[in-house]
Q: What sequence folds into this?
């Protein structure tokens, strides 16, 4: 049915040093010797040659081995073979969306996950959940209640009144018909709710376009619907009614003049109304 987001290892600094001190020069001791004689001429007496004692040349000093600094063995660096680690895909896995026409089971599961244990499944409609939710929100934004396309089933308990001094009032027990709905909204995890809403946005947008909207997004329509519900008054005192059965009307003309969507908030009672408004404000912050 169609509805209108390195590890780097620094190399270690190694001290190479010198391989030893500079080699000292070898000192050689050289012995020197000298000799001479005189020449005489004519009748001059020739003097006996002077005997010069031989000069003893000492043996050379043997070379002493040069003391050198011990040279350390060079450090052998063995490079390990690099370990090839398996590549890990850091991209988060996103579950593919089904088509709009085949989205009921998928959306039911998403809503159940967000409910986190609350028994919300019996309240969900069976077919065309996305389309009917979009139409319902579209009507809420205009202040209307499209009961036939509500994504949630109506409460099982009947609406009751109290007769006091010939006047008819809403029976406070009737407020409890909406406890499960209000508690469900109040207990939702904000992050999970925003995540699920974002994930379902393509389906919601597609269903919204089917209604003929091209100049406004479904997010904007949702914002408008939230504003309508937040504007509903919270009534603490007994609420007087006039009429019979489903035709009950508020005696207070200001209440009777309210949009039907806001009248629904009043029929939930002040406590449930506060819970719903708190949940809507949180969702509104995420949408903003």
A:
């Amino acid at each position: 049915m169609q509805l209108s987001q390195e590890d780097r290892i620094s190399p270690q600094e190694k001290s190479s040093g010198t391989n030893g001190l500079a080699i000292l020069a070898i000192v050689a001791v050289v012995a020197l010797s000298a000799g001479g004689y005189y020449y005489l001429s004519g009748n001059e007496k020739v003097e006996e040659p002077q005997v010069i004692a031989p000069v003893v040349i000492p043996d050379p000093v043997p070379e002493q081995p040069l003391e050198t600094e011990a040279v350390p063995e060079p450090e052998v660096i063995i490079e390990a073979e690099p370990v090839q680690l398996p590549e890990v895909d850091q991209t988060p896995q996103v579950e593919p969306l089904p088509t709009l026409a085949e989205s009921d089971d998928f959306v039911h599961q998403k809503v159940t996950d967000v409910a986190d244990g609350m028994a919300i499944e019996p309240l969900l409609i069976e077919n065309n959940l996305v389309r009917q939710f979009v139409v319902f929100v579209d009507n809420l934004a205009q202040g209307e209640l499209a009961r036939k396309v509500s994504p949630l089933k109506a409460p099982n308990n009947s609406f009751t009144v109290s007769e006091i001094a010939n006047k008819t009032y809403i029976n406070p027990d009737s407020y409890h018909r909406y406890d499960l709905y209000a508690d469900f909204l109040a207990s939702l995890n904000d992050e999970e709710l925003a995540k699920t809403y974002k994930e379902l946005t393509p389906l919601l947008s597609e269903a919204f376009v089917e209604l003929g909207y091209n100049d406004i997004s479904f997010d904007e329509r949702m914002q408008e619907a939230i504003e309508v519900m937040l504007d509903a008054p919270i009534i603490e005192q007994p609420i007087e009614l006039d009429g019979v059965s489903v035709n009950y009307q508020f005696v207070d003309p200001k209440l009777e003049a309210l949009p039907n969507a806001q009248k629904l908030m009043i029929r939930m009672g002040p406590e449930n109304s506060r819970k719903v408004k708190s949940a809507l404000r949180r969702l509104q912050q995420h949408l903003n």
